[in-house]
Amino acid sequence: MRGADAALDIVDSFVACKLTSSPALAEHPGPRRQRLPIAAAEGSARNASIRRNTRRHTLRKAAMNASITAAMTTAATNTSGNDVSAPITDDDIRNDWQLDEVEALFALPFQDLLFRAQTVHRVHHTPNTVQMSTLLSVKTGACPEDCAYCPQSVRYDTGLDREALMAVADVAARAKAAREAGATRFCMGAAWRSPKKRDIEVMTAMIREVKSLGLESCATLGMLSREQAKELRDAGLDYYNHNIDTSPEFYGEIITTRDFKDRLDTLEAVREAGMNVCCGGIVGMGETMRDRARMLQVLANLPQHPESVPINQLVAVPGTPLADQAPIDPFDFVRTIAVARILMPRSAVRLSAGREKMSDELQALAFFAGANSIFYGEKLLTTGNPDVEHDRALLVRLGIQAAGAAPAALHA
Ligand code: SAM
Ligand code: DTB
Ligand code: SF4
């Protein structure tokens, strides 16, 4: 075992021991509607994947380790007295995270967790940079699914008007505007359980338009068959967003019209088609800390880490079953970002829904914890998002650059 791993394992097991009776980490109380196996995601491909994922970024690592070692040597003996000063290296891409290890990360003192997350972040990413995606709901409302958080489910009266699939030319115009505002990726969302054949035909035309503008393309359209995934990929789709949303154990409390395994099957189809995976979840739905740890464990133990991991804070929409859900402690939200960063070092971690309710200071903490991607534009799908002017000003105040955007776009 490498020195860094050994030191951090000692810290982790120490914290895990102290936490065996922590109420925050107790199983979520009350009955579950269903408990679903996830062996498919956590199983057979793990060893091959670990080997595949141990490619080195030698030059960057050497440079980073020099500065990290200097910083950590002066900074770090943690509260347990264990030395955590050994540099974290980019050998740490793993797909075999154990639940107690993930829980132990959540339980670290806040500053230790953020220091470790920021350290991992700097080994694998250009600091002070965020990727910006703009969302558009291309088909809104009347979704047959019963996701308890979602304003677009036909089952809840949220006052949302249903809208048919948009015209391709209108989507192209919105994509162009997003590019001019500084976005580098355009994400099209549709309130479907799964798309029909004719929907895929229109979506492929939209994807071609988005790509012709020089933008990266992303879509989130519900469950896909393998054939549909290939059709979207052939049209040029770069990313497919399909969230697992929460832990397998809590899933049945939130959604009953599909199961956790359905999500994993679509993720597998997306990977098989050769697209990048965008997959994350929501915090603040009444889940326990253990559920959050399980959700991140499942994501990190997929055969290949999602390239993009959106962490949404619940937008509690009136009319949905979660309308009155109490907001989570903001520090726990930041902890979730930090643990995602540590478990999936190379992924983009997106500070996603919920930013409208977050202070600038909280967002800055989330960036420090390793978030390096945001949704940019006045609207998410159906709910609000910070104004672009506010976001631009925030990034300037924090000295954060927009990754890959034309500089003129951001200073327009
Ligand atoms: N229908 C498709 C699906 O469910 O995959 C695509 C659209 S769906 C709105 C995309 C994701 O948005 C959901 O999986 C969920 O993670 C997120 N989302 C939806 N409503 C939300 C809310 N009120 N707060 C936070 N995230 C939400
Ligand atoms: C994701 O993880 N969050 C986005 C995107 N992927 C599709 C959606 C957030 C939706 C928030 C509620 C709404 O605006 O309808
Ligand atoms: Fe439908 Fe997606 Fe909303 Fe669930 S999250 S109700 S599948 S649009």
Structure, explained:
It is built from 16 helices and ten strands. It has helices at 3-18, 39-42, 46-52, 58-75, 99-107, 110-124, 168-181, 197-212, 226-234, 248-254, 260-273, 289-300, 330-343, 360-368, 388-398, 407-410, and strands at residues 129-139, 185-190, 216-220, 239-241, 276-278, 281-283, 308-313, 348-351, 373-375, 401-402. Strands 1, 2, 3, 4, 5, 6, 7, 8, 9 and 10 form a ten-stranded parallel beta sheet that branches. Helix 5 (99-107) crosses helix 12 (289-300) and helix 9 (226-234) crosses helix 11 (260-273). The longest helix has 18 residues, at 58-75. The chain is globular, with a radius of gyration of 21 Å. The N and C termini lie far apart (52 Å). The structure holds S-adenosylmethionine (SAM), 6-(5-methyl-2-OXO-imidazolidin-4-yl)-hexanoic acid (DTB) and iron/sulfur cluster.
Number of helical segments with 4 or more residues:
16
Assembly annotation:
single chain
Helix and strand succession?
HHHHHHEHEHEHEHHEEHEHEHEHEH
Q: Strand tally, please?
A: 10
The averaged pLDDT comes out at 82
Taken as a percent bin, the fraction of beta residues is 5-15%
Q: What level of helicity do the residues show? A: 40-55%
Separation, N- and C-terminal Cα atoms: 52 Å
Task: Please compute the radius of gyration using only Cα atoms.
Answer: 21 Å
Write the layout of secondary structure elements.
Elements: H1 3-18, H2 39-42, H3 46-52, H4 58-75, H5 99-107, H6 110-124, E1 129-139, H7 168-181, E2 185-190, H8 197-212, E3 216-220, H9 226-234, E4 239-241, H10 248-254, H11 260-273, E5 276-278, E6 281-283, H12 289-300, E7 308-313, H13 330-343, E8 348-351, H14 360-368, E9 373-375, H15 388-398, E10 401-402, H16 407-410
Parallel strand pairs: 1-2, 1-9, 1-10, 2-3, 3-4, 4-5, 6-7, 7-8, 8-9
